[in-house]
Predict the 3D structure of the following.
Amino acid sequence: MAFMGRGPLDGFSGKLGKVVGSNRNGKFYLKSLPCKSNRPPSPKQLEQRERMKLAAQFVGALKEVIMVGYQYVKPNHHPVNKATSYHSKEAIAGTWPELSIDYAKVKLSHGSLNPPSTCKVKAAGAGTIFLSWPVLTNAFHCDDDELLVVVLGDTIDWPCWKFDVAKRTDGSGIFTLDESYVGKAVHVYAAYVSANGKKVSNSWYLGQHEIT
C-alpha cells in the first residue's frame, strides 16, 4: 500500500485498472488489487481468519465501551480496529476450529488513570452486584472519576454495562442487572473513566460470579 498527496490523480478513490484508491482520515492511499489464488487456505490461515472473526464479533458487541476505552490510539488508527487486533492476538483461547474468548485476558480499556489497588465483587441478590474498593487520594487521578462496570456472559450477544456506577471516592457501588441474568454466571470488569470522558484506566477483570 502507498500513501499519496494530491498529485496528478488528485487523490482519487475507487478502482482504476488494477489499482484501488481510498481516503482514510483525510489521507489518500493506493493499493493493488489482491491476486486471486486457487490454493485452499492452510489450517493456519483458517485459524487466523476465525480468530479475527470472533474478535470482531466480540468487540462489535461492545462498541460503545471500546470507543471510550481505546480512544487514545495512534493517529490514523480506529479504537475498534485496535481492540479487535488486541483480542484476536491475546484474548482467544484454543485452536481452530475450537476457539473461544479467554475472558481473563479481555481488555476493555487502556489508559493512564490509576485503577484501585483491589476491588471486591459480591452478588447481592435481586440481580444486583455490589462492588467495593479502597479510597486512595493522589495526584494521578481525580476524586470524580466514575466507575465503569461491564458484565459479559459466555455468549457475546448479551453484554451489559454502565458508565457511572459510582465515583472513585464513594468506595462502593451497586450495579443492577435485568432479571434475565439471575441464575447465570457472568464475567465482571471495571475501569475508571474521568468525568469528562477523556481519560480512562486500564480495565481489570473481577472474575466470574453467579447472579442471584
User: Anything to note?
Assistant: Residues 54 and 88 are 8 Å apart (CA to CA).
